[in-house]
Structure formats: C-alpha cells, structure tokens
Write a structure and sequence with these properties.
The chain contains five helices and five strands, in the order E-H-E-H-E-H-E-H-E-H. The chain is of the alpha/beta class. Strands 2-1-3-4-5 form a five-stranded parallel sheet, with helices on both faces.
Length: 131
C-alpha cells in the first residue's frame, strides 16, 4: 500500500477522504495548508501527494512546484473543483502527474492507487509510480 500526504483545507472533506484512503489500506498523513504540507515533506517521504488546488496560504500549483524540489519520486495528484482543460494543463506543467475533479471519482482513484501498489510490489524496491 501507499504512504499518502493529503493536503485539503476543508476539514470535513479532509477527514472523510483520509478515512476512505485508510479503509483501502493506505497510510495517510494530512495537512490543511501549503506550509504544513511542506513542513511534513521536510522530514518524511511519501509515495503519493494528494493536494487540493485552492488552499488558504498558497495555491496547489505553487505547492507542487516546491514539493517536487523536496521529493521528486512521489506521484502527485491534484484534486480540485477547478477542472477546465486549462486547469489540467497548468497542473501538469506545475508538476502534478494526475488531476481529479471534485467530487472525486473514488473508484478511479482507488484503481490508480491499486496499480501503484501492485507495481511497487512487483519491482520489489518499494517505489510506486503511475505508469
């Protein structure tokens, strides 16, 4: 399973989303801000970063650029209510690997995380990646 950092400022959404991810067997840490997420990444590597785009202290686009400097090997997934083609393009350019619209397609997300976990177990080194 994956170690996940979930960055979501709406606390009810954060709690529900984290509970779902944990029920799938993942280890989940949470933050409600860019500053908190970056602080967490200073000391801890994660397999997956799930981040909202609209955060109170900076945008998720700014966040991923800084987060990538700290952990280049994680898979970064944007989760946002902003889901135009331009938003997706900007997200990919900023460093996100995948982009999910809110409300999140949980079955689609679960499939992505399962593929990552399976790939990590097959390559035997614990690294997960979107393929």
């Amino acid at each position: 399973m994956c170690s996940i950092l979930l960055v979501e400022d709406h606390l009810d959404t954060q709690r529900a989303f984290a509970a779902i991810l944990r029920s799938w067997g993942h280890t989940v840490s949470t933050s409600d801000s860019v500053a908190g997420g970056l602080s967490f990444l200073e000391d801890t590597e994660v397999d997956v970063l799930l981040s909202d785009i609209g955060l109170p202290d900076r945008s998720g686009f700014e966040f991923i650029a800084e987060a990538r400097r700290r952990n280049r090997h994680m898979t970064a997934i944007a989760v946002s209510a902003y889901f135009t083609a331009a938003d997706q393009e900007r997200g990919h350019a900023a460093g996100f690997d995948l982009y999910f619209a809110k409300p999140v397609d949980l079955i689609g997300l679960q499939r992505v995380l399962e593929r990552m976990s399976l790939a990590a177990s097959r390559n035997g080194n614990g690294n997960v990646a979107v393929g």
